[in-house]
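Input record (one chain):
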Amino acid sequence: MKVFSKLTGVALATTLAAGTAVAQDPTFFRIGTGSAGGTYFPIGGTIANGISAPPGSRACDEGGQCGVPGLIAIAQSTTASVFNNTAVENGELEAGLAAADVTRSMYLGEGKFDGKPHPKLRIVANLFPEDLHLVMPKGASLGGLADLAGKRVGIAQAGSGTQVAVEQMLAEWGVTRDNMDEAELNNSQSAERLADGQLDAYFYAAGWPVSAMVQLSTTKGMELHSFSDEDLAKINEIIPAYIPSKIPAGVYEGVDYDVKTPAVSALLIVSSDLSEELVYGITKAMWNDNTRKLLDNGHAKGKQITPDTALDGIAALGVPLHAGAEKFYREAGLLK
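The corresponding structure, as predicted from the sequence alone:
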């Protein structure tokens, strides 16, 4: 359980075979994540390591990998939630990390995705809370979201759950693409533009600490907008999946105050086309002792990914668990 190898590459997925064939024939499993400067990418890589057990590797009880026999999981950088859900629905990815609000809207075909449901989306686990960071230059402040009118604002990249949610929020305060200078950038690009004076603010939803913001705070410095309780309640009314949260003081250098902000759950999603046997094995591997060590020793958000919170909020979300994941949770006594 102490040894694992990080695997890279891209391959077509196959189905999980039975019997001795599992040890001989690899099953490739692509996990869509996010940009390298965010949280999805490192977390996706850790999950990929935990659920993998390539053909020919040593057995778990002999110090080898403790994932699904024959499985080679690969974390791929993408533009995050919308892209990942679309790719899973279309069979271009086997799994993906995605925000709960976007996954619900896409599954049901609501909101921005009105009339375009994604019925194959299935949940494996709730992972961790993603806090919305509204980042500003050092010394800057906002009275509220309405102050962003006329500003140069990073609204995250197209295909991200952050952008979908941010546009919904801003519209409630009268800020749209018509009265702000919006920039569709990933987190690292946004941080660079802010540092260079090309942006007045930018949004990014991710589990803290976010590496690009750690670098920004230790070089140029930055501020984070702390939302009022009234604004948090309004955002929760607009997007129920976004609930009041807090980024503690000291997470980022120079940000020595608690930041009140909305947060949404990050999910691990797969397609209903995947076999029950495969997803059962993946879910079981996610929660074994080996993967626990990897999560605890990786990104800070890894410690918050636990079987006790794996089902939090899912029943109310309206998106089904995959049958394989449901089988595991029932056997583990986590689902009645």
